[in-house]
Amino acid sequence: MKALVKTEPGYNKMALLEIETPCPKDNEVLIKVAYTGICGTDIHGFKGEYDRLKTPLVLGHEFSGVVEAMGEKVTSVSIGDQVTSETTFDTCGECEYCQNKEYNLCLNRKGLGSQVNGSFAEYVLTREESIHILDEKISLLAAAITEPIACGVHASMEKVQVQKNDVAVIVGPGPIGLCLSQVLKSAEVKVIVVGITQDAERLKTANELGADRVIDSLTEDAAAIIEEFTHGKGADYCFECSGAAPAIKGIFDYLKQKGTLVQMGVFAKNLNELDMNSIVQREINVIGSRSQKPSTWHLTLDLMKQEKINAERLITKIYPLEQWAEAIEQVMAGNEIKVVLQPNKG
């Protein structure tokens, strides 16, 4: 099969190669990939900034497809089923996190596209427990970005529990931020999306998808606008989705006393400036939200089934796998909202 492989650490070091198609055994399922999204962490991997990758490795972890084959112990899916999959491929199965099905926190977790081969290929191998059969209302194209939508669901409905009429600020109108905006609007939260001038089209999309206010922080005073919007109180929540170090320097100015910062974005470096005195003096809560867990996927797919999330609206470019370099270039340039690869044509 054709696969896009990160051959070794470093910048780029990517090649479209012919590799052996995996053969599923036991509880494994082989999926013929229909569409696979390019995530920000894939870009970190491309740039050589993500040290969790175990090369040589097929990147990619957001995908949909059709069940092609399965191991002898698989009972819940059938050949021909249209599916998507969680990103967990293997865990220890014994730690407290595994016992609670918080696989995203297992220290021995192996993830698709990070420790085992992922979905930038004609076929991807996953495990039965991670598979979700798609409702007829969810297209294969929409399902390809279930994972980033689930990140927003986990952050806003599991790590914190947003309520109707809460005010939430989203910093970073990229795919994660725009997915999250729709999730929050489905819960009747008031949403403010903050970006920069080069995010103009994405801010426009956020507005079209129901955001109550969008802000260009380079030309507008975001803190002042948020203060006015909240009648001087400040936002209940701020979801940092950009992973950009400059974005967090004044981020607590958006929050009310005892407000909550939910950090979702992944930074290129581990150490970044954060106003620690505000955390103390204003009793700010800071919560990390990593990926998602099985319960999140059920919530997410239910929202998609109810058509409360317009996933396809966020997909602005589709490239064949052979044009992966151009696709990655477009993602890095910020010219598109969500770019997906199509490994199998037709």
TrEMBL record:
GO molecular function, a single term: zinc ion binding
InterPro entries: ADH-like_C, ADH-like_N, ADH_Zn_CS, ER, GroES-like_sf, NAD(P)-bd_dom_sf, Zn_alcohol_dh
Domain of life from the UniProt record: Bacteria
Classification via Gene3D superfamilies: Medium-chain alcohol dehydrogenases, catalytic domain, NAD(P)-binding Rossmann-like Domain
Pfam families linked to this entry: ADH_N (PF08240), ADH_zinc_N (PF00107)
SUPFAM superfamilies noted in UniProt: GroES-like, NAD(P)-binding Rossmann-fold domains
Source taxonomy: Bacteria, Bacillati, Bacillota, Bacilli, Lactobacillales
Sequence similarity: Belongs to the zinc-containing alcohol dehydrogenase family.
Keyword Metal-binding included in the entry's annotation: yes
Entry keyword set: Metal-binding, Oxidoreductase, Zinc
Domain Enoyl reductase (ER): 10-341
Cofactor: Zn(2+)
Name this polypeptide is given: Chlorophyll synthesis pathway protein BchC
